[in-house]
Design a protein that fits this description.
single chain, alpha/beta, FAD/NAD(P)-binding domain, 4 domains, 4-stranded parallel β-sheet, 3-stranded antiparallel β-sheet, 19 strands, 20% strand, binds nicotinamide-adenine-dinucleotide
């Protein structure tokens, strides 16, 4: 994770940063309300932050479709603490499975890792988890080898629906070789502490409800609206037909407002909710705001110059001011002429385990399904290029090198 403090340090602008959760946005009052979610609270409990202009980029929540038991028993994979919880849970399952006198059924259950959702999140996680088992767990704790098993459950007929057909087939084939089970056309209906209930259609066309025991359940079925975004939408009449997030125009202005912009997974601009879109939207807004600041500057200067021109006593002074005004007006037209946001798709990439990745890359021949060392480097360099700072890039490379030499950490905490 990139600490926000580390990139604010080198900015000239006076940025105030509050590490807090925004609990409500009041559109009419132009006010947001924040809450310090940390354990240590200061002596004041100021919660109001007024705004003139607001950018909302709060992301999305995990979709559960109201399926009972998901929040209580499943692990999500969106924020950093989610990943830490999953890691702890994997090791807890492994250590409990090897604990004295466990029944064979219990060992099997504990070592059954179920991932629900065959989008990129579910597929990448299933691949990484199998890698963790093959490269590390199997060596350190050989007694789990026979029973450790990863299953990916997907309601649709295939995984990775956004990729082309041959890449889907390549992924399914790779998973087969990695011994990851893919259960497509299988819809999870209920989650209990030790098993899920999933519905599938059998060969005779009959719907069957099956109980699948698990030790770890990772729930990756996509995005849902955050309450703070839902509440903001309810205050703006132009948003009443929007279901998946804040509908924005081509300048990323929230429809129905003039002073609120939205970027990333909480904004609906007809693009997939991906990091690539969010990063480009952020860069566009930064350019837009810089232009707006420049426009302001030029307009103030213009007002001053026309004052000088009006009050000028001699013709040369008047002419000089007039010349400057003409130049500034030209600059103003150029600055004001900023085009709308246009997304440039660089391609889709998903890691599928055992140093293999699938990629639909628009600027190459089309799609690419590769494995081996080259893909591994391509995949890693794509991730490195997404780090914000050199500091983070170096830290990430060092982490990878450390893992290559010593393997992944297998301690429970
Ligand atoms: P997703 O919406 O892409 O996929 C969720 C899947 O879960 C769907 O295929 C859906 O059919 C399935 N599902 C839903 N309910 C189910 C149920 N009850 N039982 C079984 N299956 C069920 O979600 P995601 O994978 O979290 O991705 C979210 C967004 O983030 C996407 O836009 C994705 O492209 C992006 N993303 C991209 C990458 C990458 O490019 N490498 C990685 C992670 C996420």
């Amino acid at each position: 994770m990139e600490p926000i403090r580390s990139f604010l340090r080198h900015k000239k602008a006076a940025v105030k940063y509050y590490e807090a959760e925004c609990t409500k946005i009041d559109y009419e009052k132009k006010m947001i309300y924040i809450n310090d979610e940390s354990e240590i609270k200061g002596s004041t409990s100021a919660t109001e932050v007024p705004f003139d202009m607001l950018v909302v980029g709060v992301g999305a929540e995990n979709a559960t479709f109201g399926i009972p038991g998901v929040r209580e028993h499943g692990c999500f994979l969106k924020e950093v603490p989610d990943a830490q919880r999953i890691r702890k849970r994997i090791m807890d399952c492994v250590e409990t499975a090897t604990f004295k006198d466990q029944s064979p059924e219990e060992v099997k259950r504990l070592l059954h890792m179920v991932v629900v959702g065959g989008g990129p999140t579910g597929v990448e996680f299933a691949g990484e988890l199998q890698d963790f088992f093959e490269n590390d767990l199997r060596k350190w704790i050989p007694e789990i080898s026979k029973n450790f098993h990863v299953t990916l459950v997907e309601a649709l007929p295939n995984v990775l629906p956004m990729f082309s057909k041959n890449l889907i087939e390549y992924t399914e084939q790779t998973f087969k070789e990695e011994t990851i089970d893919i259960r497509t056309k299988t819809m999870v209906k209920r989650v209990e502490e030790t098993y899920i209930e999933a519905e599938y259609t059998d060969a005779s066309g009959k719907k069957v409800l099956e109980k699948i025991p698990y030790g770890l359940l990772v729930w990756a079925t996509g995005n849902a609206l955050k309450p703070v975004v839902k509440d903001l939408m309810s205050q703006i009449s132009a948003q009443k037909d929007s279901r998946r997030g804040l509908a924005v125009n081509e300048y990323l202005v929230v429809k129905g407002t003039e002073n609120i912009w939205a970027v990333g997974d909480c904004a609906i601009a007809n693009y997939a909710p991906t990091a690539q879109v969010a990063a480009q939207e952020g860069a566009f807004l930064a350019r837009l705001f810089n232009q707006m600041a420049k426009t302001n500057e030029i307009e103030t200067e213009l007002a001053e110059l026309s004052n000088v021109q009006e009050k000028a006593s001699s013709k040369p002074v008047r002419d000089e001011a007039f010349g400057k005004i003409k130049d500034l007006q030209k600059r103003l037209r150029r600055v004001k002429n900023i085009g709308p946001f246009e997304y440039s798709h660089q391609g889709s990439l998903a890691y599928i385990g055992s140093e293999k990745a699938v990629a639909d890359i628009s600027w190459l021949t089309g799609n690419l399904a590769t494995g081996g060392q080259l893909t591994y480097f391509f995949w890693r360099s794509a991730y490195l290029s997404m780090c914000f700072s050199t500091r983070n890039r170096i830290l990430v490379i060092m982490d990878w090198a450390k893992t290559q030499v010593f393997g992944r950490d297998v301690s429970r905490e």
